[in-house]
Amino acid sequence: MLIAAILNLGIGIYTIYLVAKGFFNDQKKLDWAKGWKSMRYFTTLSNVFSAILCLIAGIVEIAGGQPGNGLLLVKYVSCVSVMVTFVTVMAFLGPIYGYKSQLSGAGMWVHLFGPLLALIVFAFLEKGMKISAGQALLGLLPTIIYGTFYLYMVIIRTEARGGFEDFYAFNRGGKWPISFGAMVVGTGVLCVVVTVLHNL
């Protein structure tokens, strides 16, 4: 459990540091979105979610305890959410915007190393419970909730009325139904992958 504790604390502390940097660093050039604006991105939200759960689990583990089933279940949901970030960048955003832009600066951590380390810890080092098929469906929630919010801000409210620009390019060519469906299905696949790896 010591290795899990060290990795959990490392993920949590470093991720929070990167996010906080966007709030408190006054340099003109930052490798992270500034202030509250960063909180509109699924990348930020999923990584903060994962960081909080990693910190809690790490504290429990460093104290010699073992995370309870409730904590592990929520940690599972956070793990799936950061893996959604990882896969979306590798399979969709990277080809559109370029991998250099997605993996430079803080992007290397929040898009690649942070999610992969979170998966390694949860799937291979934290084996306190078996995730059932019903529980696995909970991993869909962050994608569905954020996806619905994103579509509202981009398509219904629109940027002109204080909404978001389509920074994830999910509505290119008016194809948001396909994008939304693909994200839900893709998240479902990740739920299966993470659940199987953890339950082995």
What does this protein look like?
This protein is mainly α and 200 residues long. It has eight helices and no strands. It has helices spanning 2-24, 42-62, 69-97, 99-102, 107-125, 133-136, 141-156, 176-199. Helix 1 (2-24) runs antiparallel to helix 5. The two termini are 17 Å apart. The relative contact order is 0.14.
Note the total helix count.
8
Strand content: under 5%
Q: What fraction, in percent, of the residue positions are helical?
A: over 70%
Task: Indicate the multimeric state.
Answer: single chain
Kindly state the mean pLDDT as a whole number?
91
Which spans have pLDDT < 50 for at least 5 consecutive residues? none
* Amino- and carboxy-terminal Cα gap: 17 Å
- Cα-based radius of gyration, to the nearest Å: 17 Å
**What is the molecular shape?**
globular
Q: Keywords for this structure?
A:
single chain, 0% strand, 200 residues, mainly alpha
List the helices and strands and how they pair.
Elements: H1 2-24, H2 42-62, H3 69-97, H4 99-102, H5 107-125, H6 133-136, H7 141-156, H8 176-199
